[in-house]
Amino acid sequence: MLSPKSNRILFVASVYTHLAAFHIPFMRLLQDKGCEVHAAASSSEGRKEEVEAIGVKCWEIPFARSPFNIRNWEACRRLKAILQSHHFDLIHVHTPVAAFLGRYLAKVTGQGPVLYTAHGFHFYKGAPLRNWLIYYNAERLAARWTDGLIVMNGEDFENARRMGFEPDKNLFYVHGVGVDLSRYARPSFPGGYIRAKLGLSSSDVVVTCIAEMNPNKNHILLLRAWKKLAERYADCHLLLVGTGELMAYLQEKVEKEHIPRVYFLGYRRDVPRILLESDIVTLTSKREGLPKSIMEAMAAGRPVVATDVRGSRDLVEDGCTGLLVELGDVPGLVAALEKLITNPELRAAMGVAGRKKIQDYSLEKVLSQMAAIYERYLEEIAG
Predict the structure, then answer these.
(1) Alpha-carbon distance 78 to 276, whole Å?
(2) What is the pLDDT of residue 243?
(3) DSSP reduced 3-state for 224
(4) Other CB atoms closer than 10 Å to residue 186's CB: what's the count?
(5) Does position 174 have pLDDT exceeding 90, yes or no?
(6) pLDDT grade for 295, boundaries at 50, 70 and 90
(7) In the CATH scheme, what is the homologous superfamily, with its name and number, of domain 8-178+362-382?
(8) Domain extent listing, the chain
(9) Distance (Å, rounded) from C-alpha 260 to C-alpha 231?
(10) DSSP state for residue 318 in the 8-state scheme
(11) What share of the chain is helix, strand, coil (3-state, %, to 5)?
């Protein structure tokens, strides 16, 4: 049980889109325990109102994702002012830049314990040397300000141990941000929802990618492969769910190169419906922490084709719950998608295996894991 006194908790991230997409269940968990929850992030990408709607006190901090952006000086000044005028019993930080500044400022202003969830370190096997020089050294420095580190994939766990964190003492391995399995129960949705809107038949094969349109998500690799697949299979359709800085560029590429049957669906609140009407889900990222879109695909019982990168490989068992391809391998991606496009029995078998594996990643189980971590640090204060 959390302390009976009303603990004040602060969530910090670069943007409110991150907090809205992944952390509202954890904010509610703390509220249900009687905590007063605050959040500090930039609303530049929207969704701040979703966090405010659950009763969280939101502070506007103009963080920039790039560590070199001058806006971070103003973000640092504003966050420091908040921390000087408020005491937080626990601070939970996310995203590299906001997490680094948040941890430093928490310590210099005498706040309570600081937890950091690494949603995928920016240094990883195969990462550019620049990433290791900047982000690895930044994390080693920030380790002294980090009371607890939460990771969600095997590679990050090992890197955290090398930085001196100790499992079950100040290092915790959780199953991502969790997925609400109840939202993927087929009887909840009528059939033909998205297919009818797009004019697709029940026999058409639908491949779906859910990802922010930025360089890391690597839609270019997917479109290169799709251009070849679309020439071979006239009944296949590609749904791209999400928005981002590269959306206009990708739309222009599809139009200029006459890549057929690609649908840009934008930001959606009906992802479970879309997944339940998809046949295959794909993600071609250059790096991941533990991708929620793959967890959602598995919850919907859909096979996944993904690049063999950290995070994705933690979820996708090659040949069992889906297929993994090497980063940059267009022919390999074509072959993997083709294998599933032409084999509905294999799709069904992999979907069943994925649904079974994802049980351990349910939101219910992750909430239980996080509740135990929160309680540990808040009880230290009470004691």
Answers:
(1) 44
(2) 95
(3) helix
(4) 10
(5) yes
(6) very high
(7) Glycogen Phosphorylase B; (3.40.50.2000)
(8) 8-178+362-382, 181-361
(9) 8
(10) B
(11) 50, 20, 35
Angle made by CA atoms 53, 116, 72, in degrees to the nearest 5: 75
Whole-angstrom Cα distance, residue 153 to residue 22?
16
Q: Which residues contact 320 (CB under 8 A, 6 or more apart)?
A: 350, 353
Going by their DSSP bridges, the two strands 36-42 and 8-15 should be labelled as: parallel
The answer for residues whose C-beta is within 8 angstroms of residue 21's C-beta and 6 or more apart is 47, 292
The partner residues of 280 in beta bridges, in order of sequence, read 207
**What topology does CATH give the domain 181-361?**
Rossmann fold (3.40.50)
Q: How far is it, in rounded angstroms, from Cα 64 to Cα 74? A: 10
Structure tokens belonging to residue 180: 């609400």
Output the six-digit token pair for 17. Answer: 């889109």
Q: Cβ contacts of residue 353 below 8 Å, gap of 6+?
A: 317, 320, 321
**245-270 residue pLDDT tens:** 999 999 999 999 999 999 999 999 99
pLDDT score recorded for residue 304: 98
Burial of residue 222 (CB within 10 Å: 0-12, 13-18, 19+) is: buried
Which residue's structure tokens are 């141990």? 161
> Position 288: which residue type?
E
Per-residue model confidence (pLDDT) at position 383 = 56
- Strand-pairing partners, residue 91, are 10, 114
Tokens 């969704």 identify what position? 47
Q: What is the pLDDT of residue 4?
A: 45
Residue type, position 1, single letter: M
pLDDT in tens, 331-375: 999 999 999 999 999 999 999 999 999 999 999 999 999 999 999
pLDDT attached to residue 189 = 61
CA distances from 356 to 303, 315, 361 (A): 12, 12, 10
What is the Cα–Cα distance from 53 to 60, expressed in whole angstroms? 15
Mean pLDDT (whole number) for 109-131: 93
Question: In this model, does residue 187 exceed pLDDT 60?
Answer: no
* Residue 272 one-letter amino acid: P
